[in-house]
Amino acid sequence: MPVIWHTATVKYIEPLTPNVRRFVLEAPENFIFEAGQFITCDLPIGDKRLQRWRSYSLANAPEAGILELCIVRAEHGLGSRYLFEELYEGSAIRFKGPDGGFLLPATIETDLVFICTGTGVAPFRSMLYDLRRSGKKHQKLHLIFGCRTVADILYREEFEQLAREWPDFRYDIVLSRQPGWQGYKGHVHPVYMQEYAEKRPDVQFYLCGWSAMIDEAVANLIIRLGYDRGQVKFELYG
Which among 25, 62, 214, 218 has the fewest CB atoms less than 10 Å away? Predict the structure, then answer.
């Protein structure tokens, strides 16, 4: 089946943290995606497909004609260098998709625990806003977000407001390199290991982040805590 490419226009760009930016794109209004999916951008940074293609999760709830990306600037990344240095409001981006099966079930019958680090929070932001706006029936929701310092916390005010207004939603931050931080310290693993130490059939874990974090979390949940493989879904970043 031939690949269908679309063109989006950069509506605006804004910093979220010193190293992460929000890119809001205007796409064709008939472009439809589901919360948790991603698009693949064809960036003019090389001649071969593997040099040019970069995939990014969509960070906004499904909305006609609007795509939001949450992108970190990699130190030696050609893709992020192009996006951070050469892309401006009004620029065009060629992309394909949506793709990915990192989706919520049609009927949510368990508690959902979202575990992520860095820009791995993007698909969970999409899912949470989709659930909030749609009014879809759900159980308890718990977001565990890990990063290095206070300056690196993505969407903090948004999630804290959601937690205040939405009794079903709980939000925990874990910082690994912030002196004087009063909340959870270190990495995300001890948090879910403590909170969900007693094996439960009524909980589903969603993981998103770099491969090392995913590998450790999958081993912890399945091997150490004894959860069924079907209770753990993940999306890799790198």
Answer: 218
DSSP codes, 113-170? EEEEEGGGGHHHHHHHHHHHHHT-----EEEEEEESSGGG-TTHHHHHHHHHH-TTEE
Which tens digit of pLDDT belongs to each residue from 172-199?
999 999 999 999 999 999 999 999 999 9
Widest CA span of the chain, in angstroms?
A: 55
Residue with tokens 């293609």: 53
The DSSP code sequence of 14-45 is EEEETTEEEEEEE--TT----TT-EEEEE-SS
Is residue 216 within 8 A of residue 223, CB to CB? The reply is no
pTM score = 0.97
pLDDT confidence band for 238 (50 / 70 / 90): low
72 closest CA partner among 23, 24, 28, 36 = 23
pLDDT tens per residue across span 121-137: 999 999 999 999 999 99
Smallest CA-to-CA distance from 199 within 225, 222, 217 is with: 225
Residue 3's pLDDT band, with cuts at 50, 70 and 90, is confident
Token couple for 195? 């909170």
**Amino acid (1-letter code) at residue 153:** I
Cβ atoms within 10 Å, residue 197: 10
